[in-house]
Design brief:
Blueprint: H1 23-36, H2 44-61, H3 76-89
């Protein structure tokens, strides 16, 4: 059972219906970002649970590549807007 993480507006990460075919890749990218940043292994699962939807939105918007790196010459605000829309759809 994964830990329950509370998002803004009282949403819970486990309740957000954001499953799609991009989810496994987005989770892998979020995990890679954690490890690259030196995060403790015990802290990675809850961080991934909370942040994979953001990674998915950034991928879909084309501002992040499959390695979790920012795409040069792309406006990160496009990714933030995609993430906001993704959260709004999940309500």
């Amino acid at each position: 059972m994964s830990p329950e993480i509370t998002l803004r507006a009282g949403l819970k990460a486990n309740d957000a219906p954001m499953t799609s075919n991009i989810e496994p890749l987005a989770r892998e990218i979020a995990e890679r970002i954690c490890r690259r940043g030196g995060m403790a292994e015990a802290d990675i699962p809850p961080w991934v649970e909370l942040h994979w939807p953001c990674a998915a939105a950034m991928l879909e918007a084309g501002v992040m590549d499959e390695g979790g790196e920012w795409v040069e010459d792309r406006d990160v605000r496009l990714g933030m807007e995609a993430y906001r829309e993704r959260l709004l759809r999940s309500r």
